[in-house]
Amino acid sequence: MVANETPLVFSHEYATQATYSGTRIVVDVTAENDGLESITPEVPVPQVVCTFLDKDGETLHQSGLKLKKSIAAGETITLEFTLAVDVDDVTRYELRSEWVEE
């Protein structure tokens, strides 16, 4: 985890999967609302971003997912981030969670 501005607490793991078109990396994230109140998909809304990096720390791919439904205190949601290009160049990934206004 690089930065987390929200009350979401993450557990995550990654796997390399073979597909018909090649190999892909999948990062499965479980996010728990560790706060005392529900988090809603109204502005500002949490956005979780996964960045795949190469050995030099250069970004190969980045994607973000915004909260689409409410999460009550203590509830969890699952998120999935996938990389299907430059798979052999990935040495790490970083997760970031932030409040966004859009």
Could you walk me through the main structural features you see in this protein, from its secondary elements to its overall organization?
There is one protein chain. By secondary structure, the chain is an all-beta fold. The chain has one domain: Immunoglobulin-like, CATH 2.60.40. 0% of the residues lie in helices and 59% in strands. The protein has no helices and seven strands. Strands 1-7-4-5 form a four-stranded mixed beta sheet, with no helix packed on it. A three-stranded antiparallel beta sheet has the order 2-3-6, with no helix packed on it. The chain is elongated and about 40 Å long.
Number of strands: 7
Principal-axis shape equals elongated
CATH topology type: Immunoglobulin-like
How many structural domains in the coordinates? 1
Subunit organisation of the chains:
single chain
CATH architecture: Sandwich
Distance between the termini: 23 Å
H and E order: EEEEEEE
CATH C-level category = Mainly Beta
Largest sheet geometry: 4 strands, mixed
Rg over CA atoms: 15 Å
User: What is the helix fraction of residues, given as a range?
Assistant: under 10%
Q: Structural class, please?
A: mainly beta
Protein name: DUF11 domain-containing protein
In short:
By secondary structure, the protein is mainly β.
Question: Which terms would index this structure?
Answer:
elongated, 102 residues, mainly beta, four-stranded mixed beta sheet, Immunoglobulin-like, three-stranded antiparallel beta sheet, 0% helix
